Amino acid sequence: MTETASRPTLEAVAALAGVSRATASRVVNGGDGVREPLAERVRQAVEELGYVPNQAARSLVTRRHDAVAVVIAEPETRVFADPFFALQLRGISKELTAHDSQLVLLLTEGRDDHSRVGRYLAGGHVDGALVFSLHLDDPLPGLVQRAGVPTVFGGRPGWSDGTRHAVYVDSDNRGGAQAAVRHLVGLGRTRIAHITGPLDQTSAADRLDGFRAVRPDADPALIAESDFTPAGGERAMRELLERRPDLDAVFAANDLAASGALRVLRERGRRVPEDVAVVGFDDMLAVAEQTDPPLTTVRQPIEEMGRLMARLLLGAVASGGEAGLAGAPAGVVLPTTLVRRASA
């Protein structure tokens, strides 16, 4: 109680600076219309007293909350186990920190969480939202639109719920997949399998399209659906070996699935890359450099994608919210690169 009572007030700042409370408030909360000599006196008083602005009062003046919601449409067990999310969150956090804005993380385990997220976004707690890892039947795009907050999506939109001007950041999933499969073809591999990601996500669907663009006549038995996890990669690899034991290459839709596939190949006595060449997608160093053998993979700039999402959103907020996004490019697609290591 004593500590709270002794906290410096805006009135104390104004008195020390020799200005009115209204003038001190405009300076502290980033308002305009105060002459520089007066503004400098207020800033000096703030520093001398150690004054910390009240965020609620600041929001009333600026109509800004200096906070951004990051909504990941995955359960927490997936988010905290997959390095992809850590990399993307690191990029987002770096950009928000550079602009003195806070990150509020919201995860969705099920339908009840969707309504909770929708209520939070509509409640005026944040300046905007970054939303990624969406599935095709996900209600989040509609909820975000109804909340009326500026939003940037991670990944190419694939929903059809009436959301119109969707600004998004993605990587060249189709082109990266084509590069991976062409590399395997160039190694002389003819029975190339594909372990997909969850096909209700556009990234996985685009990578499958890239595979089919290079191998349009591929035996359907050489394609197994997975879920971007090591366990899913293991299941898919066992399924493929049962169907096509003569396969000589595998393109996995992400590095985690590729790591699972490598474990199964080793268990079955298949040498990599001599018997079966393996290529992944992501180039998450915590995975790709630690597999046995190290993984040839397609690099996508995960951290930079996060930074760019945050940069687009903050630019929109500074330009007037949704009006600012209306001037942004609908989609930004970053290039991918094949990184060769020992697995292929």
Structure write-up:
The chain has 344 residues and is of the alpha/beta class. 47% of the residues lie in helices and 15% in strands. The chain is built from 16 helices and 12 strands. It has a 6-stranded parallel β-sheet, with helices on both faces. Strand 6, helix 11 (202-214) and strand 7 (223-224) form a beta-alpha-beta unit. Helix 10 packs parallel to helix 11 (202-214). It is elongated, with a radius of gyration of 25 Å.
Name the descriptors.
alpha/beta, 12 strands, 6-stranded parallel sheet, 344 residues, 16 helices
In short:
By secondary structure, the chain is of the alpha/beta class.
Distance between the termini: 65 Å
Going by helix content, strand content and strand pairing, the class is: alpha/beta
Number of DSSP helices?
16
- Percent in helix: 40-55%
Strand order of the largest sheet: 2-1-3-4-5-11
List the helices and strands and how they pair.
Layout: H1 2-5, H2 10-17, H3 21-28, H4 36-49, H5 55-62, E1 67-72, H6 76-79, H7 83-98, E2 102-107, H8 111-122, E3 128-132, H9 140-147, E4 151-154, E5 167-171, H10 173-186, E6 192-195, H11 202-214, E7 223-224, H12 230-243, E8 249-252, H13 255-267, E9 277-282, H14 285-288, E10 296-299, H15 302-318, H16 322-326, E11 331-334, E12 337-339
Helix pairs in contact: 2-3, 2-4, 3-4, 7-15, 8-9, 10-11, 12-13
